[in-house]
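User: quick one, fold this
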Amino acid sequence: MPPRPETPTGLAESQPEIHWGQALEEHAPWMRTVIRSRLNEPQAVDDVMQEVALGVLKSHHRPTDPSKVAPWLYRVAIKQCLMYRRSAGRRRKLVDRVAVAVPQAAAQEGGDPLNWLLGRERQQSIRRAIDSLPELDRQILILKHTENWSYQQLADRLGVSLNTVEYRLLQARKRLRAELSRSTERDSTSLFPASTSPLGEASR
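Assistant:
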């Protein structure tokens, strides 16, 4: 076998070929999580993922370094999320129509309407708290707890430094606890104002 030609001085060895179909399949789970967290519309994830795949396959600026694939895919996913928002011309509505939903759900489930309402209020509090976080903080927090990634995996996928991941995750958890505390107080006041109580009428 003839010897391989030597690499010219100052030039790195050529990078291994990237199979983009396989790369998309490999990174799809966490990309779907990012898209879901950005849009808050679970039904839109498949549509955006399809646009991501088309954008990747049509792009003439795909990275050739395998270590750059995940950060590049992350940027493509974010771009497609923004395009989806603009084209759809809407955002997810965060307000549940409790006045209509409570009697219907209680009748269907045969449960206590008050317990159902309190459960719904807690879920809404968590959603509002997560939605209030800065975009990158929210994605890091969600990916950490849904994908169970290490700090290094988060840094590699999102294209940020390890220190940034550690700081953002710490700040996200602090903000989440603070917002949940405030939200719980607001919900309690909204449900049971100071002038009344669940037993107020019966105790008079």
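User: anything notable?
Assistant: Residues 7-12, 90-103, 196-204 have pLDDT under 50 and may be disordered.
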